[in-house]
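Support request, please re-run this one:
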Amino acid sequence: MHSSKRYTIEEARDLIPSLEGWVRDLQDLSSRCHRLTAWARAMFEQGHDLGGERVKDALNDLQRWKAIKKHMAGLGLILVDLQKGQVDIPALLGGREIYLAWEMGEQDITRWHESAGQYC
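Re-run finished. Output below.
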């Protein structure tokens, strides 16, 4: 595991509202980045100079992305799949290191897996 923090199931459940916000923000930022990339590619192919507000906004989005990811990593949380909104939360079960598994839209944490990645 990457972090020394291990969460109880109660602590992990308390994180769900924050996880929803962080993952939603990351999904939105990712979507905006993809749209900007398509726009920039089209503009570049047409010979236009790239810059201005769109590029400034993209840089701000990138900084926001990095801040959210750094915050989550600092808490020991692992973003497994952005599209599905899957996050692993480090925990202990009977002295074994496991990950509690949460996915966007879930109201509770009902799954876990070991580092090997098999869900239980």
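The two ends are 18 Å apart (CA to CA). The mean pLDDT is 86.
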